[in-house]
Specification:
Elements: H1 3-35, H2 38-42, E1 45-54, E2 60-64, H3 65-75, E3 84-96, E4 99-110, E5 118-131, E6 137-146, E7 160-162
Parallel strand pairs: 1-6
Antiparallel strand pairs: 1-2, 2-7, 3-4, 4-5, 5-6
């Protein structure tokens, strides 16, 4: 095997390892959020992270930095009080050195109270991720677009930037 072939193989292996590490962070986010593991959730984000959720009705919630990430992590519902599952699917990953752009489908399934479980929400995550000095990939920017909406869905009590658009009279 030539030196060029070894270098190409090394680059391909690194790309696979990066993709796996990025997807691991995305999966750890769901587990940590659903079961209230605040420290694991905090470790999914960079210290300067910005997290934003946008809904079809114009509502925008935003959390920034360590304080914002901790606020999000400590105020979100979780087991055992509220059973839900955040799933990440069909992720596209574009690694550029120590940063990566990731777009994923997201679904949140909620356990029913006497009823069947149901899809609470769906949409997409647009993530910018950064490899830290420790080699761990973390989310630096997450913009969540909720792509379905229905009356009565609870809204986060924190991070409100923009209220829902007023209905026309």
């Amino acid at each position: 095997m030539s030196l060029d072939e070894v270098a190409a193989l090394k680059a391909r292996v690194q790309a696979l390892e990066d993709r796996d590490a990025i997807l691991t962070t995305l999966m750890q986010y769901g587990h940590a959020l659903d079961y209230g593991d605040v420290e694991l959730l905090m470790d999914c984000f960079t210290d300067d992270a910005v997290r934003e959720t946008r809904r079809p009705d114009g509502t925008v919630n935003r959390w920034a930095g360590l304080e914002g990430t901790r606020e999000f992590a400590t105020t979100h519902t979780h087991a055992p009080e509220k059973i839900h599952k955040h799933l990440v699917l069909n992720s596209t990953v574009q690694v550029k050195g120590d940063t990566a752009d990731v777009v994923s489908y997201m679904f949140r399934f909620d356990a029913g109270e006497g009823d069947k479980s149901h899809v609470w929400g769906m949409g997409r995550y647009f993530d910018t991720m950064r490899r830290g000095a420790d080699g761990r990939w973390r989310i630096q920017l997450r913009v969540t677009f909720i792509e379905d909406d229905w009356p009565g869905r609870s809204r986060p009590a924190t991070g409100l930037v923009t209220a829902p658009a007023a209905a026309p009279a």
